[in-house]
Amino acid sequence: MADLIEIKIPDVGGVASIDVVDVLIKPGDKVELEQIIATLETDKASMELPASSGGTIQQVHIKSGDKVAEGSLVATVLVTEAEPTNAKQEESVQPVSTPAPAAQEQPAPVKTPEQNKSSTTSPSPAPVIANNSSATAHASPSVRLFARELGVDITKIRTGNGPKGRILKEDVKSFVKHIMSEGVTPSGSGIPSIPAVDFSQFGEIESQKLSKIKRLTGQNLSRVWLNLPMVTYHEEADITDMEAFRVSLNADKKKDEVKITGLMFIIKALVAAMKQFPSVNASLSSDGENIILKKYYNIGIAVDTPNGLVVPVLRNVDSKSINQLAEELAEKSDKARQGKLMPNDMQGGCITISSLGGIGGTAFTPIVNAPEVAILGVTRAKMQPVWNGNEFIPRLMLPLDLTYDHRVIDGAEGARFMAFIKQNLSDIRRLLL
Ligand code: CAO
């Protein structure tokens, strides 16, 4: 004798809407009691649905992507007398030919992967809801469990090698291997890396080893990029008068004396602004709870060298003259280009200036040299027509860019800081105040 049995969605803790992630059976399939026939998910858990009866699948009533609820019909199974069922299962399914009272219509219990490991034909215990924050990833609960055990956020694995891109254990292992070999664990972000490309297929290539400075700078910049919410603010200062003064100073200099560039005045204006806005001369404590205000004024200057970017630090800039600063920068940038800077020469900076003005540019977005909270970018000054209320007059305008850590510096504060620098550069007599 054969009976048609209905398999229904059981109670999964009162959840109203359950997603069908995967259906593992089709009509004609022979299934065994407790064989997993579908994968279901709620917003909190994923679970496998075991067959409550062994037999031959007659009809499948769900498909992936469906939303179901407790009691929804999953499949009908033709069960012959020889086919095993268990007591609990018999309570949970109903033969179509002999409808049972509603009280008995208990669907089969749903199993978590943990339960799956030990169970064979015995009735399953009540479902344990496994915590799951990755409802969109296409993977079985056992693979999700495996990923969780390894601390892998499964949503970071986009597609797997299983049918329909299903994520397999092997995919989780490869993901971990990849992360370990990259050595990239910034903020635990698990950001997928850029895929490797064999460029030789497109033409001739040559591979050159990065200098140590470039590698270290790259790591540091990536770390800062991922950790700091940065904003860059652009400003322009009228340096016509400052430039005339600078030219006259240099005209008085002997041949072997170090010439003064605009950068020295920018350093002075920057220090004046740091005194006015102490939170710019600061660092955030590593727990993010306190701001550490610095009462000294050390300025890092980004120097372009054949081996990469280095940042020597000019110390106690507030107590040095423009000439002293010019000499010190000339000496340190020379040392930098010859690779002779000592670690001590590059420590203790409060804020960095990155000046590309000797090369060109109209604006750029420098990256903060953390744990500093701001960096001042400078590009090339250029004569521009400026409206003075009556007419356009030619003025030498200097573009400035301030990138700051928005956790420490507000937008308005950043703008006021730059307005202060602009005012001081436009009228350098103010630097005496
Ligand atoms: N506008 C117009 N002219 C400028 C200028 C500006 N903003 N800045 C510099 N110049 C002029 C200088 O007056 C100088 O002119 P003269 O040859 O006629 O005297 C010339 O450009 C070269 O200046 P410089 O670059 O040698 O000197 P500096 O003091 O301005 O800068 C230093 C020194 C060490 C900062 C610079 O040489 C350097 O290495 N800059 C690169 C920094 C860098 O790579 N930053 C990118 C980092 S990524 O964030």
Main sheet: strands, sense, barrel: 7 strands, mixed
At CATH level 2, the architecture of the largest domain is 2-Layer Sandwich
Q: Which of globular, elongated, flat, extended, rod-shaped describes the shape?
A: elongated
Can you tell me the CATH superfamily of the largest domain?
Answer: Chloramphenicol acetyltransferase-like domain
CATH class category of the largest domain: Alpha Beta
Summed up, the helix count is: 9
Task: Describe this protein's structure.
This protein is an alpha+beta fold and about 425 residues long. The chain folds into 3 domains: about 1-110, RNA polymerase II/Efflux pump adaptor protein, barrel-sandwich hybrid domain (OB fold (Dihydrolipoamide Acetyltransferase, E2P)); about 120-180, Irregular (Dihydrolipoamide Transferase), CATH 4.10.320; about 215-430, 2-Layer Sandwich (Chloramphenicol Acetyltransferase), CATH 3.30.559. About 25% of the residues lie in helices and about 25% in strands. It has 9 helices and 20 strands. The protein has helices at about 85-90, 115-120, 140-150, 170-180, 210-225, 240-250, 260-275, 320-335, 410-425; strands at about 1-10, 20-25, 30, 35-40, 45-50, 55-60, 65-70, 75-80, 95, 230-240, 280-285, 290-295, 300, 305, 310, 315, 350-355, 375-380, 380-385, 390-405. The strands form 5 sheets. Strands 10, 13, 16, 17, 18, 19 and 20 form a 7-stranded mixed sheet that branches. Residues about 85-135 have low confidence and may be disordered. Oxidized coenzyme A (CAO) binds next to helix 7, strand 14 and strand 17.
